[in-house]
Amino acid sequence: GESSRRVTIEQLDVTVALSDKREMRAEVIGVDPATDLALLKVDARNLPSMPWGDSSKLKVAEWVLAIGNPYQLSQTVTLGIVSAVNRTNLGVSSYEDFVQTDAAINPGNSGGALVNARGELVGINTVIFSQSGGYQGIGFAVSSNLARRIFDDLRQYREVRRGEIVGVDEIQGLTTQAAERLGAPDTRGGVVAAIYRDSPAYRAGLRPGDVIVGFNGMEVSDPAHLSRLVSDTAIGSTARLAIIREGRRLELQVPIGRRPRN
């Protein structure tokens, strides 16, 4: 039989359907599998655009609208509130910052806008929690601030450039028992579980068992939070890490390199 060949979205013909019934072929500028977002470009002028909103200013219980194409019902609008912000660790993607909403989101809503009361884009609907496959009041949207960062990189580089602490192989969360054993005051932060010798991070003084509790002056809540902070840091810069080592708080200067695309 024929050998299977891997096909990527860049190789597919993508068509965008507008609200005025026009269909236009789109060019795939770039794709970011880590957030499940892609940037498309259509050859058209004077199209209406939605202004970017600041998702960091969203408040729980604020009204939002979800717009999409559920079950092929185009231009469907549903109303709900912001149930939570900064949701991570859902296991949906490798880089997460979700707005949770109870606005009705169903299959077909993915990629649609989550809009605040001022008509600003505050999220891109992406996934639901459901045992039935349909709406159960728990939906998630990629925050607009994360989406805008992905948009800027894809437009400029056709890929997303993320930073990393070069040499750190694994960072784990802390349990109460682990925090006590490592001398950390609580379970906030992330512990360096593995690090390569002769790496920039090791040469900067970072060691296995160090608990990273601060990054460039910001408190680190958990490994996912640290990952987002590091990823958004300029490649080639130097970051200030606050660590706990054997109960003592220390500060290190570590270089930020570029995370491999894969």
Q: Radius of gyration, Cα only, in angstroms?
A: 21 Å
- Report the portion of residues in β strands: 35-45%
**DSSP summary: helix tally:** 4
From N to C, what is the helix and strand string? EEEEEEEEEHEEHEHEEHEE
Report, as a whole number of angstroms, the end-to-end distance: 30 Å
Task: Tell me, briefly, the overall form.
Answer: globular
Structural class from helices and strands? mainly beta
Q: What can be said about the biggest beta sheet?
A: 7 strands, antiparallel
Query: pLDDT average, as an integer?
Result: 92
> Which spans have pLDDT < 50 for at least 5 consecutive residues?
none
Total number of beta strands: 16
Helix content: 10-25%
Structural notes for this entry:
This protein has 262 residues and is mainly β. The protein has helices at residues 144-157, 176-182, 200-203, 223-231, and strands at 14-17, 23-32, 37-42, 63-68, 76-87, 98-101, 113-116, 121-128, 139-143, 163-165, 168-172, 190-195, 211-215, 218-219, 238-245, 248-258. The strands form three sheets. Strands 10, 11, 12, 13, 14, 15 and 16 form a seven-stranded antiparallel sheet that branches. A six-stranded antiparallel beta barrel has the order 4-5-6-9-8-7. The longest helix has 14 residues, at 144-157.
